[in-house]
TrEMBL record:
Name assigned to this protein: Mce/MlaD domain-containing protein
Gene Ontology BP annotations: biological process involved in interaction with host
Annotated InterPro entries: Mce/MlaD, MlaD_Phospholipid_Transporter
Stretches that traverse the bilayer: 12-33
Domain Mce/MlaD: 43-117
GO terms for cellular component: extracellular region
Keywords annotated in UniProt: Membrane, Transmembrane, Transmembrane helix
Length: 178
């Protein structure tokens, strides 16, 4: 009978070790994906003409380093986007800081890059302070770029547009015409 107890104990110990490791991995992944901001924070807002693609929880970065996150996005009375965000207490946001919406990766995720103001600039923003629309820059809009080609497309006939489209597709796919 002693052999049976030893046979059960080994799998139970293995399962216990597995459960502890699985719990640690789960907690680590949760903390990584939660995008929490460590320590105390200051709250701010910024007004943009357009924040297409920006979402709650997206990063706030200074010099590429994550220092905060977006906590809300809404519209003001003039139909401008107002982004609420928090930044770690150790970071100073000066009165002439600029906020720019940037692409984080190729799948279109965005973040807000804060470009610090200059030394001797207006005093730091107080907790709850706001950056005006003049100090913000919306994200690059590829449809705006493509709309710039509209005059070119209007001067071409259908056969020329098809030829141009085929040439562009081949160039983008790395093929050459034979």
């Amino acid at each position: 009978m002693g052999g049976r107890d030893g046979g059960i104990a080994k799998p139970l110990i293995g399962f216990g070790v597995f459960a502890i490791v699985a719990a640690l991995v789960t907690v680590t992944m949760w903390n990584t994906l939660a995008h929490s901001v460590s320590g105390g924070v200051h709250s701010y807002s910024a007004t943009f003409t357009d924040v297409q693609g920006l979402r709650d929880g997206d990063d706030i970065r200074i010099a590429g380093v994550r220092v905060g996150k977006v906590t809300g996005i809404g519209l003001d009375a003039r139909q401008h986007a107002v982004v609420r965000f928090v930044v770690q207490r150790g970071q100073t946001i000066l009165g002439d800081t600029k906020a720019l919406v940037r692409y984080q990766n190729l799948i279109g995720q965005r973040y807000i890059a804060l470009q610090p103001g200059t030394k001797g600039s207006p005093a730091p923003l107080a907790d709850g302070g706001a950056l005006p629309i003049e100090q913000t820059e919306p994200s690059f809009d590829i449809s705006g770029l493509l709309n710039g080609f509209r005059p070119l497309f209007q001067t071409l006939d259908a056969a020329q547009v098809n030829d141009l489209s085929n040439t562009l597709v081949q160039a983008l796919q790395g093929m050459r015409r034979r």
